[in-house]
Amino acid sequence: MPYRADHLVVLDTTSQLYTECAKKIVEYAMNCIKQKGHFSMALAGGSTPEKLYLELSTGALSRQLDWTKCQFYFGDERMVAHDHADSNFAMAKRSLFDHIDTPDDQIHAIPTDADAEICAARYAQLLSTHPPIDLVLLGIGEDGHTASLFPDTTILTETDKTVAAVYVDKLASWRISLTYRYINHCPHAYILTAGANKCEIVKQIFTTDKPEQFPVTGVRPEDKLYWFMDEAAYQCLQQVSPMET
Ligand code: 6PG
Questions:
Q1: How much distance in Å is there from the Cα of 139 to the middle of ligand 1?
Q2: How remote is the CA of residue 122 from the centroid of ligand 1, in Å?
Q3: Atom of ligand 1 nearest to the CA of 195
Q4: What is the structure's pLDDT at 241?
């Protein structure tokens, strides 16, 4: 059974992609704040989201949102210090937190200052004291991973924990990540992907008869799943079967 996204949004350029995705996030956030007085979001790591966070925090949209009513979490983290070049927290700090007035105690970094299993348990404990995160933002790797849900890793079959430590052989490093159990109990998830280097994996995900081989296809939030991509990431799929978008 081929994989299908609830909502697939394709933008001509990467700049338009970031603007459209930022607009969607702000729209949803404003709606959450209007309905219940607060909004929470788990941030994706890697390189793709950095310009999205800058668009959110410094673009025209940034003045529409009451950042003091927002809570920020992370979908995953590398086991490095929070000021390390590879840290997802460091990336979000320079592109988002340093430009908005969300109070520090509403920004929840994944701890990395102890054994990975201990840090994962601490984060799970923190999440258990908060309502489900409204929006989980995710990226995809060229192997179809998302967050730190990598192919052929133990975390993919984790059904009890909401946050788990996972050793990723191909990276020879530990990661901490939200599990499907947690992600799929959140209302919304947005998958953001950009660039020609993601073109092949996007085509494979949407055309294979075994989509379950790619961890990102296991993301099934309670309510809405949006894929946001630019033309560069979509073009291989378009060549195979022009899809309604
Ligand atoms: C991470 C991310 C990871 C990322 C993909 C894509 O910590 O690396 O959470 O899942 O989203 O690897 O990374 P790029 O955006 O750098 O291509």
A1: 5
A2: 23
A3: 17
A4: 63
* 48, 168, 176: residue to mutate for ligand 1 pocket, most atoms within 8 A of CB: 48
Query: Which protein residue has the closest C-alpha to ligand 1 atom 15?
Result: 48
Whether residue 177 contacts residue 123, with contact meaning beta carbons closer than 8 Å, is answered with no
Q: Token digits for 20?
A: 């459209």
- Whole-prediction pTM: 0.97
Task: Using alpha carbons, list the distances in angstroms from residue 172 to 118, 167, 214.
Answer: 19, 7, 20
Question: Which residues sit with their C-beta closer than 6 Å to ligand 1?
Answer: 44-48, 75-76, 88, 139-141, 145-147
Q: What is the DSSP string of 82-149?
A: TTSTT-HHHHHHHHTGGGS---GGGB-PPP-SS-HHHHHHHHHHHHHTSPPPSEEEE---TTS-BTTB
Token digits for 220?
């099934």
The pLDDT tens digits for 29-67 are 999 999 999 999 999 999 999 999 999 999 889 999 999
Amino acid present at 185: H
34 Cα: distance to centroid of ligand 1 (angstroms): 31
What gap in Å lies between CA 95 and CA 56, rounded to an integer?
9
Tokens of 212: 């379950």
Whole-angstrom distance, CA of residue 105 vs CA of residue 244: 43
Compute the distance from residue 36 Cα to the ligand 1 centre, in Å. 31
Residue 95 structure tokens: 């592109």
pLDDT digits (tens, 9 = 90+) for 156-178: 999 999 999 999 999 999 999 99
Helices and strands in the chain: count of H runs, count of E runs? 7, 9
